[in-house]
């Protein structure tokens, strides 16, 4: 009973100790991430089924993607995962200045990712490669021509590309919102050496979104990297 | 603290830098390998190499950046069960497609 009577800063009344409170938060976040694994997992399953059904269409489709931009975004996300891990580390140390600096760096990198994604999306839409009825107008002549008989399969690939990277981008936008919230909270001095669970839990989310991209990059961008249309 | 299987290291920064370096090297490696058509050697070789590298990268992020190496057994169990369920979804569905016959079809050829 003595534990309950003593007020510990940052401890909610329904927890016995800070350790228990932190553990509950971490377990809760991991349960949420499991639902996220199954959420993205359904799309990875769709990718597997359609890639096996349309192997050449996936080679053609993947070849249309920009490996330089996709690779740059991969590096941007890797650096942002490091800066997020550093932010969690300094929140545990109670170093507010470094926490704020690394949160801000992570946010900037997240926005850079979304900026590059925007460039990629607008190029694809401009080239008539957005797989919707009103925008679908793939080139049938020239350097990036897609043979008419392959267009349906490429359409399926691009549909999966936009859905998977789009869902990932939505998670990045949510992540940016979370980082802005954390920055405001850190500026107001909400985090101490003893209380930093929101930073740690948000870190789990950020790293999870990075892991999704670790799989998306080779599956979408690199599948057709060795492929030369027309030449075998 | 008895629930914790491993204590946090005093200085995790060297682990973070290590994982960061590994992720960059592995990204370079996966791009380099993807330039070559390994499918001439064995059809699924390109995807096997790419997915092996991706799994190594993801494992490093989960264990170090997400602290699972130093987390409680309960958290570790949750992580493993999530991957297990994902494998069930992928493996059972794909095996179902294969054993029904007529798949993969020649639709895409």
Key descriptive features of the protein:
heterodimer, A: 232 residues, mainly alpha, Four Helix Bundle (Hemerythrin (Met), subunit A), 7 helices, B: 109 residues, 64% helix, 0% strand, disordered N terminus
Short account of what is shown:
The complex is a heterodimer of chains A (232) and B (109). By secondary structure, chain A is mainly α.
Question: Care to describe what's here?
Answer:
- The complex is a heterodimer of chains A (232) and B (109).
- Chain A contains 7 helices and no strands.
- By secondary structure, chain A is mainly alpha-helical.
- In chain A, helix 2 runs parallel beside helix 7 (197-222), helix 4 (67-93) runs antiparallel to helix 7 and helix 5 (96-126) packs antiparallel against helix 6 (151-187).
- The model of chain A has no long low-confidence stretch (mean pLDDT 92).
- With 109 residues, chain B is mainly α.
- Chain B has 2 domains: 9-70; 72-101.
- Chain B is 64% helix and 0% strand.
- Chain B has helices spanning 13-34, 45-65, 73-99.
- The chains are: A mainly alpha (232), B mainly alpha (109).
- At the A-B interface, helix 2, helix 3, helix 4 and helix 7 of A face helix 1, helix 2 and helix 3 of B.
CATH topology of chain A, what is it called?
A: Four Helix Bundle (Hemerythrin (Met), subunit A)
Mind telling me the C-alpha Rg of chain A?
Answer: 22 Å
Beta-strand fraction estimate of chain B: under 5%
Low-confidence stretches of chain A: none
Instruction: Give me the Rg of chain B, rounded.
Output: 19 Å
* Largest interface: chains, residues each: A-B, 53 and 54 residues
What is the number of beta strands of chain A?
Answer: 0
Chart the SSEs and their pairings.
The complex is a heterodimer of chains A (232) and B (109).
Chain A: H1 2-5, H2 18-53, H3 55-63, H4 67-93, H5 96-126, H6 151-187, H7 197-222
Chain B: H1 13-34, H2 45-65, H3 73-99
Helix pairs in contact in B: 1-2
